[in-house]
Amino acid sequence: MSEPKKLYIKTYGCQMNVYDSERMSEALGGQGYVETKSPDDADMILLNTCHIREKAAEKVYSELGRFKGLKADNPDLKIGVAGCVAQAEGEEIMRRQPLVDLVVGPQSYHRLPEMEAKTRTGEKALDTDFPEEDKFEKLKNRPKAKRGPTAFLTVQEGCDKFCAFCVVPYTRGAEVSRPADRIIREAQDLVERGVREITLLGQNVNAYHGAGPNGEMTLAGLIWELNKVDGLERIRFTTSHPNDMSDDLIEAHGTCDKLMPYLHLPVQSGSDKILKRMNRSHTAESYLRLIERIRAARPDILMSGDFIVGFPEETEEDFQATMDLVEEVRYGYAYSFKYSTRPGTPAAERPQVDAEQADDRLQRLQGMITRHQREIQESMVGRKVSVLFEKPGRQPGQMVGKSEYLHAVHVASDAPSVGELRDVRIVASGANSLAGELL
Ligand code: 5AD
Ligand code: SF4
Questions:
Q1: pTM for the predicted model, two decimal places
Q2: Residue-range definition of the domain harbouring residue 153
């Protein structure tokens, strides 16, 4: 048998990309590739790119430039660009960087094997279409390789919301949901391979409306079906939009035993003026009332969110409204970003906020978020949580895992095995994790 070819994948950005990279690796596995941790000995390098913030395309070009030496040493090396920058820039990438052999958009990953074969004949391969078929169905898993205890599972892709700052509706296209039976089969397969916790992924995951046995199924319906999968212990989902937080999903947070008490629900800003300009179609007040209802269903739920500061025309007063909202919600985790223009989006054309002012606001917001995060972590001390153990800790004899609230928890014991769920009493709160004792 010939030597396996080596594949190096570098993944940027969101969890959706992490999931896609796994699927691409499996697809190319069928072409005789095994993954390698370094680009130096690779026969194929794939950059799975993200286009959401900053100067994404420029970073990709500079990363590609660094492979020049490798390609000179190994003329058979193939270089590919996948992900949202591939979708957004398309042929431009091949024009600007002749080292690139292959450009594949997120909707075309199932075509990767044929595209790879094409590059082996010396041709370039480009595919950034939005085809109709279900790429994941075509990217069927290879024979049952063992998996770690947690996995992502994409259930929905794309977005029809068109927030004024965001490239997703352009790079990932219109919202599409996968049929429920395929998702459930994939979940069963993951469980057979050792997975205990599944995070359902989608850019607008709670807008899920895939085909079910009796018409369309909501995300809550899908979660209830997954709740029946034996051996699956935990279900999470991300990322949600406030406007799609339906009654059945709120209720499921109170009644569905495998659904974890954690919800990532970005609001982006606390100012109604800015929310309107962002085309968010909800207000700060409606968001706060929504959280009240979610907390009524599941009082201990840990909230997480995303914020953009320095959106065009944001005044100090608008920013203060964001600070007020954060103070009221108290997030267990929150991700805050300085607005950065994405060419082609409506907000790119509007008057920009002074960069220093935006930096200053970002610092103030992050200061408050960090304080809440720490206080919430400290409030866990003394409490009993359930931990899904994932791997040995950094210190010898330690094991680490995640609580139901997604806090990292370590115990000074190697008794729990990987994939085991154990009750733990939290005894101390550190900078980024909690310490606990097995019960
Ligand atoms: N500038 C800054 N942050 C952005 N995000 C999306 N687009 C931009 C942009 N142009 C943030 C939003 C989103 C998260 C994934 O990234 O907060 O929820
Ligand atoms: Fe982007 Fe999310 Fe808005 Fe869709 S809902 S446009 S993915 S920020």
A1: 0.84
A2: 146-260
